[in-house]
Amino acid sequence: xxxxxxxxxxxxxxxxxxxxVGWPKPEDFALVEEEVPALAEGQVLVRNRYLSVDPxxxxxxxxxxxxxxxxxxxxxxxxxxxxxxxxxxxxxIAAGDHVLHFFGWREYAAVDARHAVKVDPEAAPLSxxxxxxxxxxxxxxxxxLRTASFKEGDAVFVSGAxxxxxxxxxxxxxxxxxxxxxxxxxxxxxxxLLLEEYGFDAAFNYKRGPVHEQLRAAAPxxxxxxxxxxxxxxxxxxxxxxxxxxxxxxxGMISVYNNTEPAPGPRNLARLIQTRGRIExxxxxxxxxxxxxxxQEVGPWVRDGRLKYRETVVEGIENNLEAFLGxxxxxxxxxxxxxx
Length: 340
Known about the structure:
Layout: E1 2-3, E2 10-16, E3 29-35, E4 43-52, H1 57-60, E5 81-88, E6 98-101, E7 108-112, E8 117-119, H2 135-147, E9 155-158, H3 164-175, E10 180-185, H4 188-196, E11 202-205, H5 211-218, E12 223-228, H6 232-241, E13 242-250, H7 271-275, E14 278-281, H8 291-303, E15 311-315, H9 320-329, E16 335-339
Parallel strand pairs: 9-10, 9-12, 10-11, 12-13, 13-14, 15-16
Antiparallel strand pairs: 1-5, 2-3, 4-5, 4-7, 4-16, 5-6, 6-8
């Protein structure tokens, strides 16, 4: 057993008090003071340094059956986190090591060592293990290359393209030889970022006109791949611009997450018949076999600056909820991170 000299007395954690209906409200949550958990054999105590907030967490706040269990009422929520081990009762991990785990929304976490992944803060900034080199980056890589079967020469459309996943999808497509990469975003500033920093060939602000019209203008020869983070009118527009044998990878549908009534589906699904198009949803958790390949390929792109990334950093555990709500509003550029 190894430990640092300063074991904290109090741990702060965000609890879910009630299941949100529509948009989450502050009264659905509470920042609660708890005892720092005692360790069982095989566990490590981690002082979290960076926490991740992600759109999928909205689904876990509901009781509806999904691909992952809902958050429990009256208990700390969960999410990606990276931090420093301050105490260890596990072989192979010592105090002072840094680990990635999924017990975020709190300052300190007792984590089974088998669920903690050691990371090297010298190889890359700690926060990147929650974003560009973490689950976010792997999501982009898996969705584009495996689910959408991207191949050199494809024209690719990405919605939510200035977000953590979307920005990486577009850049990976460019690095792997896409003929054209188009992105949509929710502000002129984000459109400028896509064009000038991330190297997209075309981009548009979806708030400035019908998506199908703007997409048609940006991709007059159609698209071969659509990476969907938004759903709704974006999905319908993509089906309308899909070329023969086009592929759509459904990663998320942030436009409908807070709806209290089912959103209408795309009205042009029959077009998939003539295009022989394919729509497929995916979850990154089914594809961790690609993690070593992902790190091996993408790591050098990040280190030498060929793949650029942005982070929106919010400071303080007390602002964790506001950071999450900001993701749902689209306030973030790139990965939303909470720094403790």
